[in-house]
Write a sequence for this structure.
């Protein structure tokens, strides 16, 4: 007859598969929340890399705190499955309430931001405090789930390795579903707020299920109760480690967190040069990282119950991680050569190959390394927790995971703020890969004996192999230049904190043309036609306003838009640009931006334009913006109803807002115009149908007043447009615009469908603007 102790150590066979299923759903919810929180907080703090990194750091700090705290209490739990259920209920409730809490925090930030010192460090600290206050409860609860699930899933004196691997892999597999679901469906089709409700409902289901199932289980042994090992306990797999070796294993995987997130930042920065910075590209890249980690953990899990020399194995794996990471740009280059062969055949079949190259390139660059990272993690857990389970296993899992996550925070910060600006992509890759090499050498030296052995071989061969591989790693910009920009010469390049900016030159029609690229995407050039388009975006609202004194330009690019505004006499201009690297690159376009940044009436702010509008108390006579493509990741927040409301709120009485609108497809054109009309009901359309002029009251332009202003030579220097030219530029008024776009959905922060363009109708033609003509006499008066 079994004793209570042995009875409590026996877990029913159905429990572990059910736990895996629940933990997979939990992982899916966690990634949905992460995507939604990053999006919502970007609307408050902006999309600068400093703001995004602050939000990510606060998210991950909560995970680490929760994991460490749960590890401390897990060994003393009598019903860990019920506690897991309660935690899931807490996650669902607190995460569901974050949009409401964010409204209050946004008001706090708006009142606080103007009073903060201009120091970036101080502002970043303030952002972290606000984000941490919002996220600390739900993220700490998320971090607590792993130690609690481990405590629930491991019976006494059973081999734990395989189960630890499966738990980690399954949670990561669920995270893939969450990331892809949010990026491809939930945000565009369901909306941000309903997605919170859906994920919270899933957490509630997990919580209720876990609590109900816990009623069917006998209490488990507390750590302070006497332990009675069952007679049929399986042998412990693996070797006995010294205290030094166990500590080295722990710090190896803290360093692994640094390596993995640093590599992720470097990979993402480089891949967008090949794949373009869209929401779908970032979703697929994240899913590719998670897929490699999950697959690696699944593949290694069946082996973890065997008595293998795991410390030497993880030593070799750390070296393999460093070498695979070093070669990731090489495999990316090879994938591009293969795509050059495959894509023409795919297009010939009538298949849209948009997603295929993103998936192929992401997997080619990241999968070999992430497979090894995923396989190494459960081995590290096994070596740190010990080969057999005990109530203390959960505590050690909590410490292990917390240090790994804290390392990940450090990795993302170091790579984005220090390595990439200082060393560039290739140098940063070598530096980040070197951390895995250092861990491998340290582990090898801990196994050193007086006579030559495996450890000595690894300590000597590893650095040599690393150095040889580093020398043969390619510079991805050389590959990108050959693939996308043949015949162009690189004049200048900077891999800045925010973005990678390059300025090229090529011969066009017998003369050199300079081109600015942001993350591989065309941003500006100095051709006459392109300069005219940008100059007109800046000059038109200044010329239509009767007496502009202040102007705001969102986005700098090559500076031609803001430069046109700066030529108007007596106007003070604020220019808000997201990237310091763009600011520096704009100096190569001084010949078309009229040496903008040397103008004493121009004030440049390196910040997020929407975030600036949210916090500023200044009013402007004119607000315009450089061309920002709406399909770029994050650009949806500059085309939403809420953004246009911020623009309207920053206009002075009688002010003018000009919005460029891209005639990509009829649906996109109508979405943007309909949304702008909702906020500016007196909108008029100008030029070729790409310039919307919004005002807060009915808008007219007086011919007499306009001709009087043209007597000023400085005014004529902007564009020597006579009244007949103004009449030709006028396209339509608000009545014609409303009839053209009709009733329909608006672009909102909650549902930014234009940024998630795959949700739009397929085969949608460009808009036919020939019918979009109005009577100029209603706007242009004598």
């Amino acid at each position: 007859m079994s004793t209570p102790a042995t009875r409590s150590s026996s877990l029913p066979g159905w429990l572990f598969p059910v736990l895996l299923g629940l933990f997979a759903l939990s992982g899916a919810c966690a990634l949905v929340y992460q995507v939604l929180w990053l999006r919502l907080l970007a609307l408050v703090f902006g999309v600068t890399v400093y703001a995004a990194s602050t939000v990510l750091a606060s998210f991950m700090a909560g995970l680490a705190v929760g994991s460490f705290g749960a590890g401390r209490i897990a060994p003393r739990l009598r019903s860990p499955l019920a506690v897991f259920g309660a935690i899931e209920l807490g996650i669902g409730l607190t995460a569901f309430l974050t949009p409401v809490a964010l409204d209050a925090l946004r008001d706090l930030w708006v009142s606080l931001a103007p009073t903060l010192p201009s120091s970036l460090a101080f502002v970043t600290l303030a952002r972290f405090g606000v984000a941490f206050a919002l996220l600390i409860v739900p993220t700490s609860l998320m971090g607590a789930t792993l130690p609690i699930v481990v405590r629930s899933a491991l019976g006494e004196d059973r081999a734990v390795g395989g189960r630890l691997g499966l738990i980690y892999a399954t949670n990561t597999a669920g995270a893939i579903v969450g990331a892809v679901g949010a990026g491809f469906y939930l945000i565009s089709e369901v909306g941000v707020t309903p997605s919170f409700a859906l994920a919270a409902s899933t957490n509630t289901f997990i919580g209720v299920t876990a609590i109900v199932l816990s009623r069917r289980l006998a209490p488990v042994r507390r750590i302070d109760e006497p332990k009675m090992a069952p007679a049929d306990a399986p042998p412990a797999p693996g070797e006995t480690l010294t205290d030094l070796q166990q500590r080295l294993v722990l710090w190896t995987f803290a360093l692994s967190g640094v390596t993995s997130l640093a590599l992720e930042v470097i990979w993402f920065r480089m891949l967008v040069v090949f794949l373009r910075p869209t929401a779908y590209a970032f979703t697929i890249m994240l899913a590719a990282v998670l897929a490699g980690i999950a697959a690696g953990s699944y593949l290694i899990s069946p082996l973890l119950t065997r008595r293998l020399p795991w410390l030497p194995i993880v030593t070799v794996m750390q070296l393999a991680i460093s070498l695979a990471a070093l070669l990731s740009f090489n495999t990316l280059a090879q994938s591009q050569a293969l795509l050059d062969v495959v894509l023409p055949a795919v297009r010939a079949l009538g298949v849209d190959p948009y997603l295929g190259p993103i998936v192929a390139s992401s997997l080619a660059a990241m999968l070999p390394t992430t497979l090894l990272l995923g396989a190494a993690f459960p081995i590290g857990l096994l070596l740190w927790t010990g080969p057999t389970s005990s109530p203390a296993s959960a505590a050690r899992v909590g410490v292990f995971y917390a240090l790994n996550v804290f390392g990940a925070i450090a990795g993302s910060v170091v790579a984005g703020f220090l390595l990439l600006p200082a060393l560039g992509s290739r140098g940063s890759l070598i530096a980040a890969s070197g951390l895995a090499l250092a861990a491998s050498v340290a582990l090898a030296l801990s196994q050193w004996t007086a006579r030559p052995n495996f450890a000595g071989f690894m300590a000597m061969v590893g650095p040599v192999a690393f150095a040889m591989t580093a020398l043969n790693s390619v510079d991805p910009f050389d590959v990108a230049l050959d693939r996308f920009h043949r015949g162009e010469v690189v004049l200048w390049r900077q891999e800045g904190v925010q973005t990678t900016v390059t300025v090229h030159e090529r011969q066009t029609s017998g003369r050199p043309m300079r081109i600015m690229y942001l993350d591989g995407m065309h941003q500006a050039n100095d051709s006459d036609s392109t300069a005219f388009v940008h100059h007109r975006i800046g000059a038109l609202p200044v010329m239509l306003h009767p007496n502009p004194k202040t102007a705001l330009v969102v986005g700098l690019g090559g500076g031609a838009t803001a430069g046109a505004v700066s030529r108007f006499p007596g106007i003070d201009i604020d220019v808000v640009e997201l990237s310091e690297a763009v600011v520096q690159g704009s100096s190569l376009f001084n010949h078309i931006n009229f040496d903008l940044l040397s103008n004493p009436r121009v004030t440049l702010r390196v910040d997020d334009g929407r975030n600036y509008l949210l916090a500023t108390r200044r009013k402007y006579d004119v607000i315009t913006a450089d061309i920002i493509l709406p399909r770029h990741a994050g650009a949806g927040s500059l085309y939403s109803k809420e953004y246009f409301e911020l623009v309207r709120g920053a206009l002075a009485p009688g002010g003018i807002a000009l919005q460029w609108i891209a005639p990509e497809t009829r649906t996109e054109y109508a979405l943007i115009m309909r949304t702008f009309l909702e906020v500016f009901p007196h909108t008029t359309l100008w030029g070729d149908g790409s310039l919307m002029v919004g005002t807060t009251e009915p808008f007219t332009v007086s011919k007499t007043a306009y001709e009087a202003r043209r007597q000023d030579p400085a005014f004529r220097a902007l564009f020597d447009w006579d009244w007949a030219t103004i009449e030709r530029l006028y396209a339509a008024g608000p009545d014609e615009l409303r009839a053209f776009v009709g009733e329909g959905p608006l672009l909102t922060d909650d549902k930014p469908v234009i940024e998630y363009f795959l949700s739009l109708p397929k085969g949608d033609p460009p808009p036919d603007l020939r019918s979009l003509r109005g009577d100029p006499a209603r706007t242009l008066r004598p």
About this structure: The first strand starts at residue 489 and ends at 495. The mean pLDDT is 88. The two ends are 105 Å apart (CA to CA).
